[in-house]
Amino acid sequence: MKIEINDKEYPKILNKIDKPPKQLYIKGNIQLLKTPAIAIIGSRKCSEYGEKMAKKFSRELSLYGLTIISGLAKGIDSYAHSEALEVGGNTIAVLPSGFKNIFPKCNQELYEKILNNNGLIISEYQEEEVATSNKFLERNRIVSGLSIGILVVEGGYRSGTSVTAKIAKKDGKKIFCIPSSLENSKGITTNRLIKESAFLVMSPEDIINKYPELNLKKRKNIENSIKDEYKEIYNILKDEVHIDEIARKVSLSLGQINYQLMMLEIEDKIVSLPGNYYKRK
To answer: Where are the beta strands (DSSP E) in the chain?
Structure first.
């Protein structure tokens, strides 16, 4: 799907940035463009600490109902997207390329997982275009532009992360940073941004409390009680889904699908609806 800057579906929040994209190519749940989103960004080659923090904050912010947006890159981006999906949250990935040239190629599986779990993929480039150095910076302005604020987890000296933070600051976004050890080379950007007046955050609630107007309430992480073998089907059922659509998205026999649906219903996790439709309870 293609939406142009004057279309009613075009996100109004993007009109407020410098050089908004003239068009967006969309795959997945376009309704996510109407939800409040937090961008989570950081190093591709992150530390174990960075990985842990990206997962923690993505998971918790998702449970508060915020959409997690990032750039589908290795490292922090990937952890942010994946963890949002793990708790049944919403995520948006913005590409520096067209849909037929996913970058990096190792994230093709994550790309498919986002689409299969009611997420959204965005690009301003035609599907055949490949990623180039200038497109990463162009992509980052959209990541920032679609968000109500950005969380910087880690970033090295003169990194793409620091450039995105500059874009966000120029656009008037709130910038949140997780403090890092002075011995961590990947913590240079976060510590510097804090020094320059970014918000130091020690918990996801430090971010939530900056948006009282959204009246965000944390939901129970019911996904933790779902057995691993049922999670693939459970994650699909964010909206009413027909059993035929479930069968197209999973590599299970119809008998296995019916069994798992029955067990999820017995465990009071989903409800069956008329016409072989199912959704989460």
So the answer is: 2-4, 23-28, 37-41, 67-70, 91-94, 120-123, 149-152, 174-177, 199-200, 241-242, 270-273, 277-280
pLDDT in tens, 76-115: 999 999 999 988 899 999 999 999 999 999 999 999 999 9
Assign residue 92 a region: left if phi > 0, alpha if psi is -120 to 50, beta otherwise? beta
Q: How far apart are CA 2 and CA 206, in angstroms?
A: 36
Per the CB < 8 A criterion, the answer to whether 217 and 64 are in contact is yes
Strands of 174-177's sheet, edge to edge?
A: 2-4, 23-28, 120-123, 91-94, 67-70, 37-41, 149-152, 174-177, 199-200
- Residue whose pair of structure tokens reads 């109500």 in the numeric block: 148
According to DSSP, the β-strands at 149-152 and 37-41 are parallel
pTM: 0.79
